[in-house]
Amino acid sequence: MSFSFAPLLIMVIGLVLVLIGAWILLRQKWLWQWLKGTFGLLMVAGAIYLVLVAVSLYSYHELSAESPVATISFRATDDQAYIATVTGRDGRTRDFRLAGDQWQLDARIIKWKTPFTLLGLKPAYQLDRLQGRYFALEDERSRERTVYSLHDEPPVLDVWRQAREGWSFLVDARYGSAAYLPMADGAIFEVTVSPTGLAGRPLNGSAQQAVSGWQ
After folding, report:
1. Closest C-alpha among 86, 85, 83 to residue 98
2. What is the DSSP secondary structure assignment for residue 214, as one 8-state letter?
3. What is the pLDDT of residues 99-109, one digit of tens each?
4. How far apart (Å, rounded) are the C-alpha atoms in residues 180 and 185?
5. Which of 32, 114, 118, 150 lies 20 to 30 angstroms, CA to CA, from 206?
6. Contact 109/195 with Cβ under 8 angstroms?
7. Is this structure's pTM higher than 0.70?
């Protein structure tokens, strides 16, 4: 018997064993019970997963075209120190103490994967964090850094983080950041979000003067 015939013989033996094993298993009633029980458990696990995803998505807002998501006003308290007041689209206002010369607002953006976009589901966003930055590199390295989270971590499942790690079959995740803009006493900015990211624009004279001073 040539060596080249051995793989074929092994394959035939394997197929015969598979057929015999399948015939023995299919004659036993416990197999069907096991299959039904396994399928039921998978259905329950899938339902729990979808509920957790829905809870996590509840904190996101629908994103259509370019939407205003927040206004930020600044009040100077000291040199390179400000109180930033963030007003969300729901009217909720929060104050943060920022150190530095510039500010940046970040957001989490999720987009539905192709099968779900066909249903007309739109992207969504969630404000993620607000931070200050110093203009001088030496200050940035040595002075106090201020970064604040703007969202509450979900109790069990974070759908955005799961998507970033490649484990979601529902959505894709990306990070959006507004360009760094200057902080100034009395300045007010509006932040808008689109599927490509965030943008900030001055709303009053103090903000416009601050922006023109940095250009």
Report:
1. 83
2. H
3. 999 999 998 88
4. 16
5. 150
6. yes
7. yes
